[in-house]
Records
---
Amino acid sequence: MFSHYIDLGWRSFKRTPLVSLLMVLAIAVGIGITMTSLSVYHMMSMDPIPDKSDKLFAVQLQTIDEGQTWWSPDNLPYQLTYKDTESLLKSDLPYKRAALMATGFSVHLNSDKVKPFLEETRVTSRDAFSMFNLPFIHGDVWSQEQEDSAAPVTVISSSLSKKLFGSENGVGQTLYLDDLSVQVVGVIKDWQLHVKYYDLNNGSFNEPEQIFIPFSLIKAHEINTWGNTNGWKHEPVKVFNDKLQSEKFWLQFWVELNNETEKRAFEGYLANYIAEEKKTGRFTREQAEYKLRDVNEWISYWEVVNEDNKIMVALSFMFLAVCLANILGLLLAKFLRRAPEVGVRRALGASKRQVFFQHIVEVGMLGLFGGVIGIIVAQLGLFGIRQSLSYYDSLANMDISMLMTAPIIAILACIIAGLYPAWVVCNTTPATYLKTQ
Amino acid sequence: MLKMNNISKMYQTEMVQTHALRDFNLHVEEGEFIAVTGPSGSGKTTFLNIAGMLEPFTGGDYLLDGIDVGKLNDNQRADLRNQKIGFIFQGFNLIPDLNLYENVEVPLRYRGIKAAERKRRIEQCLEQVGLASRAKHLPQQLSGGQQQRVAIARALAGDPRFLLADEPTGNLDSLMARQVMELLEQINRDGATIIMVTHDAELARRAPRNIQVVDGQLADFTLYQGNPNVAVGA
Amino acid sequence: MLEIKPIFNALLRSKVGAVLLLIQIAITTAIVSNAAFIIKDRLDYLNQPTGYEEENIFKFNVMTFGTDLDLIQQVELDEASIRALPGVVDAVQISAIPLSGGGSSTGFRLKPVPEKSKSINASYFETDEHGLNTLGVELIAGRNFNQDEVILNRDYSQFPKVALATKALLDELFPDEEGLGKVIYMGDQPLKIVGVIGMMKGPWLKLEERKDRSVILPMVDPGKLHQFLVRTEPGQRAHVMKQIEALMHDNYAKRVIQDLTGLDEKKADYVAEDRLMMRMLVVLISVLVLVTALGIFGLTLFNINKRTKQIGTRRALGARKSTIIQYFVVENGIICIAGLILGVCGAVLLGQQLMTHYSVPLLSNWYIATTALLVFAMSILAVIGPARRAANIAPSIATRTI
């Protein structure tokens, strides 16, 4: 019977092409606009590392004095001091840890082969590659000795390797970061991310870096951050070592904890660390404060999904409601005009339920058409967004789940709009329409 | 076969109650051909609609083939209507988007008959009304008489025991009316029970039994018993 | 004269159509008034005066990787060569670019650290005596700093003694006095205000509280990565920009010239999200109004078709065409007013929700009122066509039996 209803729905569509087209367009525009804002929302809020987002934790420590406030929601600084970062990194703990800092260099080969270019660089520690799921194509991460001895080594992405050396396998090659010559020890697959969750300080949707160098190089070569440095008290910083010893925040720190036990153990360690530091005059607060947030908590803590987008999603759903009210009216008109035919069908033995389903299938088809055209409308909308904002390139897109969602929302919405008209038409007394035609 | 005891039908509006039928009693035996006459607004069509279970009634009992119709729900009534009753209307009521074949197919689909069996029955019924060659035509391509014959084919397709006809010749000229009437008589001879509402006294006279509805009540006529030339009043 | 009561009764009987129309009008009013308000809010934000001739200024980054040079000397040399280009008004190395979203800010105090003191957060720019002219902002009192007051920073041993500040900052630090000539503190370093600047936005437009508060410090402190700002004669900018990279590389080769961009483009990048939001809202409300107008149009047509015979009968009984038009216009008007009442409540509620949860200012009632009027006008326009059609129904329809 279902295929028969589809056939009937198609005939009905063809009988009143204009009204049907109007309905399809109304739903298409409604769905198109809704899906445009929903897609961006979906991309922004999507879990960037689903298989371990609940195991990676950003570390925050409350080092600012009692009475001082910070602009974060819970008064905790977003970043860490160099002192704390180094201590956490070097402590004897069985968990994978990564200290991170954003910087950048003029990258060149000290020859005319490649024109020097500016490239953002991520300073980090060894564990970062396995923690953040960065697979090596060639070579491997630098060794612990290299990290400890601040060896001039680097890991680069495959596309950067191609750009510099003409081949994906740049292992063993030398490149220059400003005047520092570093040797490539590993090449990773390009890091593709929608949300730069590991460092949200300077734009949530920027591209991840393509060059990685050991954390120990910061001290050895006085590498300054390209990210934010924030202070909460006046500290004269004259030479680089002043900054290393200061209470200024400029580094990120992540730890991988595989279960609740490990998490509690690490929290215990942090509490102990704060107590120890207190003896040296730091951490003056009564209450030791620290926080571990997993990836998704971190993203919502930073309010990565911007509020404009939330407003747009809300408004576009209201817009969809208006389109539905419109469709409801048109469906009512269309179905009631067909009441005589329904009367005949009822006389010939159709039950109310059959008549109801026939009409629901018909509106479902309108929804399907509307949903498919809606995807086209949404693609136009997303194209427009990409044109306006370059860094939305990876955000203003529909992934498979959104492509599937569009027709489903469209069909559901149409069916909701069609319930009342279908109910009305299946409940009209058939006899009324049989006498005259 | 069909038994109506004290059937009543009342229309309720804000101001007034109107009795379309009251204390309506009728027994119809298997194989009868009954013509229902009566003035406009007397309740003929209401009677036919109740007989065909298109309208609920407000009081009394209605037994169809021993089944108490008053106790059925909508789905059961639809099934019963589909299996036992065929309708023929004054306005033909063919579905304009469907061709003749598909129009005849409608009741068979609701009965859930398999495609091959549907095809066999449709072709047979269209053959019976002499329109097999036009199966692919749309209703508006046919004359009124032809349309009514399709409607009859559609009513017959489900092999119903009852045929309810509401002014089946009302929109036809006399020649076509006679052809349709002959078709109905043939169907009656083949075993179907027919109840036909008509204004046309001459046609009514051709039916073996005449009943008259006046003010929602039944006045049974004499049986003519094959003598169409003698009219006997009650 | 107007037959409101029978129209009202008729409406009560055909509830669904009326309710649908009412809902559409209500939601449309709620959305359009709020969206229009947000659009206006963004438009004000995007078009706020900045104090700069944005279309005549451009910036670029220099990333030096060579080590065989004195950066400060090189900066002086680069500045001189750019200033010598025809069409250039002035050029300067500067620590931050206005309107770009990136820069420095700190608290400026009345007393040095660690004394307790009033402290006002403001953005600051470090540049030399050409900075004021290159930025092109207006000096409304006092003087620019002199070349001998500019600290060429090599070892952090010296700190500027004078500064220029915007009137907005000085008014907050010294609400009752003249700020010119006063000493303010950056940390524990005293700065004498020698000049007062009129309008000068900092690097940020969003942070409401510090956007008009700017300080210019006489200090040259170029890192390996430093920035230049150049102001040109009107119409000369594109031509000058084209020569920059070659010129800079002629001066010194081991460096990368990057982000050569006009100040207007910098600002456009910075406000891109707001512009996008504004455009999306404009699209949304245009389509919404269109859809609602079509909805009213369609439903009125439907009502008329349903009542064709009734209208014919009325005409046959002597109703004038104008009476029929009036009937539908009044009918629509009743629904519309009911919808508007609901929509105004919805708009206020939505506005409150947006204000509570997001950084949207409280919706002004003027927007609701204007939107309501426009929606009303639109609904009347949408109904007139179908109503005229109804008026043209022939009275003879009534006499036909079908």
---
Amino acid sequence: MAQYRRIGVTNNNDVAIVSFNDKKILDEASIQELGAELFGLVEQHNMGDILLNFTNVEFLSSAALGKLITLDRKVKASKGRMKMCNIRPEIFEVFQITKLNKVFDIRKDEAEAMTAFS
Amino acid sequence: MTESQSSQNSKSDKPSWQKSIDLPSERGASRLVMDELLDKLGEHGWASADIFSIHLAAEEAIVNAIVHGNKLDTGKKVHVECFVSSTVARIEITDEGDGFDPTDVPDCTQDDRLEVPNGRGVMLIHNFMTRVEYNEKGNHVLMEKVQDA
């Protein structure tokens, strides 16, 4: 079983549900580590469907957005699906300003996201 | 009504806070000023959504100054000046780099750039702050947020 420092991963009906260990995703070194762990889900563990649950996340910087965009591209390239949920309003506004809400599939909560996967 | 008025008065009575600091050009150096800035915004009655906006703008601008301005040259500093009152938050950041032209930064919201992983910091700063001004050289930025009346 993979060891993660930045994320927690559980499996529900073949969907990897990812939570974030850091409340604030802004430190460059942490973001690099986060990116490596997220990409590993696709590249090493062949996770097809991924749900990112942002419940714990209070802040994220544009560098973190970059990792999410790259992850989304990797998931799509491997014919998987990526969704996000439980995003607080301030962070959703960041997605709106950057129009990433058009790129990412954003759902209200885990239940709604899981229904969308099935 | 009276209560809100009195809280407004007590907020504006609080003396404004200022800080001037030189940060080393190292990743993560923003933390040397950020926690105190966020505390002061809270003490001056700023709403959590505004504190989020100012935090994001300050973080992005300081990272840009360290990484793109000073190019992580440890011989160079990033100068930061903060001012916080109950109605105005202002952060000025100066690096020792060659400067940049903010109008040269491509629009990351264009369809063909939406999936490019970087280049969103400057846009977020402009959206979250009331006023953003650069000097002619482009190595100094003034960012100000004014509390809605």
